[in-house]
TrEMBL record, chain A:
Residue intervals of the Thiolase N-terminal domain: 12-223
Organism lineage: Archaea, Methanobacteriati, Methanobacteriota, Stenosarchaea group, Halobacteria
InterPro entries named among the record's database cross-references: Thiolase, Thiolase-like, Thiolase_C_2, Thiolase_N
Pfam family, one: Thiolase_N
Stated name of the protein: Acetyl-CoA C-acetyltransferase
Species for this entry: Halorubrum cibi
Automatic annotation (TrEMBL), chain B:
Matches recorded under InterPro entries: ChsH2_C (IPR002878), NA-bd_OB-fold (IPR012340), Thioester_dehydratase-like (IPR052513)
Pfam families, alphabetized: OB_ChsH2_C
Organism: Halorubrum cibi
Source organism superkingdom: Archaea
ChsH2 C-terminal OB-fold domain ranges (all copies): 49-118
SUPFAM superfamilies cross-referenced by the UniProt entry: Nucleic acid-binding proteins
Name of the molecule in the record: ChsH2 C-terminal OB-fold domain-containing protein
């Protein structure tokens, strides 16, 4: 097994770009990643590309060859789809490919174009990540599914909308200096509480926005980096994935996400570390309650205690374990098929020290990224470490 | 409408006739059709066992922002309720007299732990068949 290094990362600004085509968004992210990496496009041996709803949003299937063109690479290119974890699985397969010695240079990332749809269209698009027969036909929307989990969590462990509002407020504050974030505006706990309901108990500021954007990473083997003088100080040392029953109603516990526990356990084992070694985390906070469930699944909070982590300051920028220093999906935005790649990009920059929020984690050596699909029927966790 | 979904639509038919069932594996895991093996443990054969007459609400949400198929239904209440070996997901009807939900109440339309009966109703938006729950008069 060879060590996998992150040679370069690239993002578009996340936000509302309804007129920009998916191919242009991904081209921009790839451009940035190549510039950051200093790796020649001709060296790329595989492209792993994540996308969820392009067939609905752009009437475009078979996107991988299109994105290889956009990135200016000619190599085997494959689209990965695992709902909101699409880029996470694309990155994971790239990591496994390089670790196994099957390739030295792989580009992974993803793209989603969403704001060209109206709210109902985007709601419909996102809902297809749920079980169509038994959930969508019973009125389950994406926010509705997380609302069902939030109420189940409150019933099992206590907690309140105010606790969730602290998660929203924290992540908006973290996004303020992030040049790639969709929302660089403060949201107070009171404003979050007073926002209109979407799917009770969740309100507007419990939810991530609808976002267009793309992410791209250039992953290389340690040997390639050394031989080609590529500056790649951060390594992906662990990868793990988990799967659960598709429909929320079929889960053992409505207030927990065991697929993410499985993914985290595998990733920690792969890296030879444990939750106590983690210095920072980027987690899949598509809704505020999702951040709570994520940090519990990652072992960064005990079951039932994650709800208080933001309120009590443990996970704020100056807390002992900063979570979502990027602003998270909540404030940075959630272009579904790009999100998993963007989390790796954020953790990489935070560990390299060139992220606008690196000042909060000057000694950080270990970061984790948690990417979830649907109501966490799919989960991918990566461990990144400073290698040089 | 498009083609029926074999297995699922027969199950909805049965539910509407008051003859809803769960599939149960030799290990006792419940699931919903169509299934060839137990999704929990992979075992078979699966037997059809009648659902209990009433279930218990485990969680619910009041949906204000619907997908297009539910645009005329919103706001509505979606709940997950336990019926013996399975949980069902359905839309709660009759929580405010005439089937309207109490849209502004945060939890006063229905409560976790409440007993409900299951039936089949129609979406207001397009008439599509949906699993419905109705609180049992106590
Ligand atoms: Zn079984």
């Amino acid at each position: 097994m060879t060590e996998v290094r992150v040679a370069g990362v690239g993002l578009t600004r996340f936000g509302s770009h309804p007129e920009r085509t998916g191919r242009d968004l991904f081209a921009e992210a790839a451009d940035r990643a190549f510039a950051d990496a200093g790796v020649d496009r001709n060296a790329v041996e595989e492209l792993n590309y994540g996308n969820f709803m392009g067939a609905l949003a752009e009437h475009q299937g078979h996107q991988a060859p299109l994105m290889a063109e956009a990135a200016g690479v000619r190599c085997p290119a494959t689209r990965y789809e695992s709902a909101c974890a699409s880029a996470g699985v694309a990155v994971r397969e790239a990591v496994r490919t390089v670790a196994a010695g099957d390739a030295d240079v792989v580009v992974a990332g993803g793209m989603e174009r969403m704001t060209n749809l109206d709210t109902e269209g985007a709601t419909e698009g996102l809902a297809i990540a749920a079980d169509d027969l038994f959930e969508v036909r019973a009125g389950v929307t994406f926010p509705g599914a997380y609302a069902l989990m939030a109420r189940a969590y409150f019933e099992a462990h206590g907690g309140s909308r105010e606790d969730l509002a602290h998660v929203a407020s924290k992540n908006h504050e973290n996004a303020l200096p992030n040049e790639y974030a969709q929302f660089r505006t403060e949201v107070s706990v009171e404003e979050a509480l007073d926002s209109p309901p979407i799917a009770e108990p969740l309100h507007l500021y419990d939810a991530c926005p609808i976002t267009d954007g793309a992410s791209a990473l250039v992953l290389v083997s340690e040997e390639y980096a050394a031989e080609n003088d590529v500056d790649a100080p951060v390594a992906v040392t662990g990868t793990g994935q988990g799967t659960d029953r598709m429909a929320l109603a079929d889960r053992t516990d409505l207030a927990a996400t065991p697929a993410a526990v499985d993914a985290a356990t595998a990733a920690y084992d792969d890296a030879g570390i444990g939750p106590a070694d983690v210095d920072l985390a980027e987690v899949h906070d598509c809704f505020t309650i999702a951040e709570v469930l994520a940090i519990e699944s990652l072992g960064l909070a005990e079951p039932g205690e994650g709800i208080a982590a933001a309120r009590d300051g443990h996970t704020t920028a100056d807390g002992d374990l900063p979570v979502n220093l990027s602003g998270g999906l909540k404030a940075k935005g959630h272009p579904v098929g790009a999100t998993g790649g963007s989390q790796i990009a954020e953790v990489t920059r935070l560990l390299r020290g060139d992220h606008p929020n690196s000042e909060h984690v000057p000694d950080a050596e270990v970061g984790v990224a948690h990417n979830a699909g649907g109501t966490v029927a799919s989960a991918v966790v990566h461990v990144l470490e400073v290698a040089e | 409408m498009t083609a029926r979904d074999e297995g699922y639509d027969e199950w909805i038919d049965a539910l509407s006739e008051g003859a809803g069932y769960a599939l149960v594996c030799p290990e006792g895991h419940g699931s919903l059709p169509p299934r060839r093996v137990c999704p929990e443990c992979g075992s078979s054969p699966l037997s059809e066992e009648p659902l209990p007459g009433s279930g218990t609400v485990e969680t619910f949400t009041v949906v204000h922002v619907p997908s297009p198929r539910f645009s005329d239904d919103a706001p509505y209440v979606t709940a997950v309720a336990r019926f013996g070996p399975v949980r069902l997901t359905g839309i709660v009807r009759g929580v405010d007299g005439d089937g309207d939900v109490d849209a502004d109440g945060d939890g006063d339309a229905i409560e976790v732990g409440e007993t409900v009966e299951v039936d089949v109703g129609e979406r207001e938006t397009d008439g599509g068949r949906i699993v419905t729950f109705r609180p049992v008069e106590s």
